[in-house]
Amino acid sequence: MDSLLKPLISFTLRLWLGVWLLVWLSTLMPAHAIGVSVVLSSEHPSYSTVAEAIKQQLAPSVSLHEWQADTLPAALPEDDLLVAIGTKALKTLLQRNLQQPMLASFLPRRSYEETQQSFPHNGNISAVYLDQSMALQLRLIKQLAPHTKTIGSVFGPSSQADSARLYSAAYEQDLELHTVALNPDDNPIAVLQPIIEQSDLFLAIPDQSAFNRASAKWSLFIALRARKALIGFSEKYVDAGALAAVYSTPEQIGRQTAEAVDNYLENGIFPAPAHPRYFTVKVNDNTARLIGWPIPNAEQLTRQLQEWMQ
User: 294 lies in which domain range?
Assistant: First the structure.
């Protein structure tokens, strides 16, 4: 009997040893690369910067494929998670009626919502917006000028949809709004001058319509002439004379986008669509002196906003 058991035991041991060896070797072999297809709206440097920030943030095991919206191949890798950088890239992907999980990035909130309405996506989709929340912008105003009571603002054809969010945020922070619609046929000076002069401070709202640049220029001119503070929405606006702005750089948007991708890869779900979590505050000291406003420095304002968000 022992002569029969010994070969059987020896065979069983060798079998288990072989299985254990295979398992151990499999841990040494590289895992199957997870794919992410990043689609850029154009070759503009800002889109490329977002893509590069995503690449730098993701783990080496993630296989990254980069495409341009205008030269997108007929078929994308079927298992890839899709990241659309900019509105055009999102529209291009949604028009294909793809069912893969999709993350939109570096586009205004209203562009994302309007595109979603035009091309509904039934799968897992989310977004990292480019623009700051109305609440954060008003909080910046409160930190710049705690005694501010009335804020003026103008909405154009494409930004009119943001008015409800601004009024809601103003109500929560005990601020009074004076707003008016500026249409393409209107005289911008006639519309802007009363609203700026009647308010303690003017908040510029970005608008994608054709007259946005002209209205931005005139609102800045009128505000400075009236010694009123204007809060912009970009670094360039502050350089041109706005008192301050809170905005997110392409690198900051790319970082948050990569974190959303990581969350999906780990948990199978994206975070909810969100405004930027990382941002930059810039102030124009020359404008502050011109209008006679002593203000905190950009670092202090950034720290206060970060604490408020937490």
Answer: 134-247+279-309
